[in-house]
Write a structure and sequence with these properties.
Blueprint lengths: L5 E4 L4 E3 L9 E2 H9 L1 H7 L11 H16 L9 H15 L26 H12 L15 E12 L2 E11 L3 E6 L9 H18 L7 E6 L4 E4 L4 H24 L1 E3 L24 H8 L9 E3 L60 H9 L14 H4 L42 E2 L14 E2 L3 H16 L4 H20 L16 H9 L1 H13 L6 H22 L2
Parallel strand pairs: 1-10, 3-5, 6-7, 11-12
Antiparallel strand pairs: 1-2, 2-9, 4-5, 5-6, 7-8
Helix pairs in contact: 1-2, 1-7, 3-4, 3-5, 4-5, 6-7, 11-12, 11-13, 12-14, 12-15, 14-15
Length: about 575
């Protein structure tokens, strides 16, 4: 296995490695993979998955070789595919012994087991390939026309659109028509996958043009479905594909020189070797995708590092950096545009906490008040005894609630049949140590002396999130609430970096109260929580749902950030 060293940086959303050399030539597949996710392309050059039973690359390679053999005798419009697949394995094995092809290795991967547990043989793989081709007739290629082969598996190395490229054209007919065999799932027309397949045909047209070969039409033939999709070969389409390929080629070389590659999630994430460790990977939604993702690099592989050091089994893995709770001089106030402008800015100021409220003198006890009362005939009214305002000095959090009336009681007391003298009295609940204070909505949630402002935005946000936690994970709402807080913080940190302040203890599940409430006071916390709530999936365990929503929220916040850069 190849030695390498790579690091995933979830905050920057990049794979960092200097072990990928800039390519000398580009193939369409490499540019296509790079365009979907530069990190996937780069890591694919460092690490190879061990094939498993029914590996699509192995089966597809055998099927392509069988089709090459079939078109050499186009008069046999309905070939016997199993014998051809057997021959195809032998032909590919012989080809791969040539010096130029030795990097490919044996066409049949070693160590793969069939579903019955026995080692997979050449015959097993031949049958898998033949099953993809059964029912396909050569007359299906051109709507009933007989094939007139001009070339099969025609390799061309040439410069197109200023890019040194290499490609292998599956089939070229004397009529000027070009075919690319597809052995996988039939994509919907207009889908990203179908668009990619058509771009590949336009690359083949450009390569053939360097050999003075004119292409009249090009089509993807999906052999399992006996369906073909035609490619747009107009000048505008060719120009657009050329510009796209050039942009990807320039980006590929630039990233390889810098050793830094963006992680871009897409529907292909489960098939990426980084699927098990990438913090931005899109979730696998089907059994097949989950099996593909499980074949990715082991999170414990010492050659790959994740910047935050969290265990990859955590649904929030890769989202909470090590800095959480470690910094002592971090900014408490944030500006959304700090990332856009590096000029120093004055620190924001907050209003001082309100002074404790005290009663002033009674206006009716002043000389002016008594004169006014006499004028209105109120001086001989009996004076009411002043009652203390219980809200002045009593902490409502420290005041025990009155006992509930027993079931069946009519006067608020205990019902006789409800009394159980022999039962031991329950210990009194421990009173909170925090004092509640009455502040303003725009005041911080933590006031001087450690008092909690019941009107503070962060306090209200924490209460709402607790309700959300009960709705998502009623079996363990405390853990669910902590997961929501961590996901919101992590999504914000991934998008806004240091503008999202550290919360001491959050990574360990014991966040500092003051730091937590200061974070929840901020608009960034509000936006992250709103994004997570809107993106929360309906299926899965609470931890899985929150993890998926957190990763999606991180991408959404990053998209908003990039729009205003």
């Amino acid at each position: 296995m190849k030695d390498f060293e790579a690091t995933l940086d979830p905050v920057a959303g990049r794979l960092i490695t200097h072990d990928v050399r800039p390519p000398r030539r580009a193939s369409y597949s490499s540019l296509d993979t790079y365009g979907n996710c530069p990190a996937q392309w780069a890591f694919g050059r460092l690490w190879r998955e061990a094939p498993e039973w029914d590996d699509p690359l192995t089966v597809g390679s055998i099927a392509h070789a069988a089709l090459e053999l079939a078109v050499s005798t186009p008069s046999a419009t309905d070939p016997a595919w199993l014998p051809l697949a057997r021959r195809a394995i032998a032909v590919e094995r012989e080809r791969n012994l040539l010096p130029a092809n030795r990097w490919k290795g044996d066409p049949i991967p070693a160590g793969v087991k069939a579903p019955n547990g026995s080692p997979a043989t050449d015959e097993d793989w031949a049958r898998l390939a033949a099953n993809r081709l059964n029912g396909f007739r050569l007359t299906d290629v051109f709507d009933g026309d007989m094939l007139r082969p001009a070339a099969a598996e025609q390799r061309i190395d040439a410069e197109v659109w200023g890019i040194p490229m290499t490609g292998s054209v599956d089939y070229r007919d004397e009529s000027g028509r070009v075919v690319d065999w597809k052995t996988g799932k039939l994509p919907d027309l207009g889908s990203p996958k179908a668009a990619s397949h058509q771009s590949q045909l336009r690359v083949y047209k450009a390569l053939l043009a360097t050999q003075d070969i004119r292409v009249t039409d090009a089509r993807d033939v999906y052999v399992e479905h006996r369906v073909h999709h035609m490619a747009d070969l107009s000048d505008d389409a060719m120009e657009a594909t050329g510009a796209l390929m050039r942009s990807r080629w320039d980006g590929m070389r630039r990233d390889a020189d810098a050793g830094s590659y963006a992680m871009t999630p897409s529907y292909l994430c489960p098939w990426c070797p980084l699927a098990r460790v990438c913090p931005l990977a899109s979730p696998a939604r089907s059994d097949k995708a989950r099996r593909a993702a499980a074949r990715g690099i082991d999170p414990a592989d010492p050659r790959l590092h994740v910047a935050d050091g969290r265990p990859s089994g955590d649904p929030l893995a890769g989202m909470i950096p090590d800095a959480c709770g470690q910094g002592k001089d971090k900014e408490d106030d944030m500006d959304l545009l700090d990332m856009l402008d590096t000029a120093p800015k004055p620190r924001k100021t907050t209003l001082p906490p309100p002074e404790p409220w005290t009663k002033g003198p009674d206006p009716w006890d002043t000389p002016e008040g008594r004169k006014a009362a006499a004028r209105w005939g109120m001086e001989d009214k009996p004076k009411r005894e002043a009652k203390p305002d219980p809200s002045d000095d009593v902490d409502p959090w420290a005041t025990p609630l009155p006992a509930k009336a027993a079931l069946g009681s009519t006067d608020g007391g205990e019902a006789p049949w409800a009394a159980k003298p022999e039962a031991e009295a329950k210990p009194e609940a421990k009173a909170p140590t925090r004092r509640m204070a009455r502040g303003k909505a725009y005041d911080p949630s933590v006031l001087s002396g450690g008092a909690v402002n019941s009107a503070g935005y962060g306090f209200t946000r924490l209460t709402v999130m607790a309700a959300e936690a009960y709705a998502i994970g009623p079996d363990d709402p405390d853990a669910t609430l902590l997961a929501l807080i961590r996901a919101g913080w992590a999504a914000s940190r991934a998008a806004w970096g240091a503008n999202t302040p550290d919360v001491a203890g959050l990574a360990d599940g014991r966040p500092d109260t003051d730091a937590l409430l200061r974070w929840l006071d901020s608009p960034l916390a509000r936006d992250a929580d709103e994004a997570i709530a809107r993106l929360m999936p309906a299926d899965g365990t609470p931890a899985d749902r929150i993890g998926r929503a957190g990763r999606a929220a991180a991408r959404a916040l990053a998209a908003a950030r990039d729009l205003i850069r």
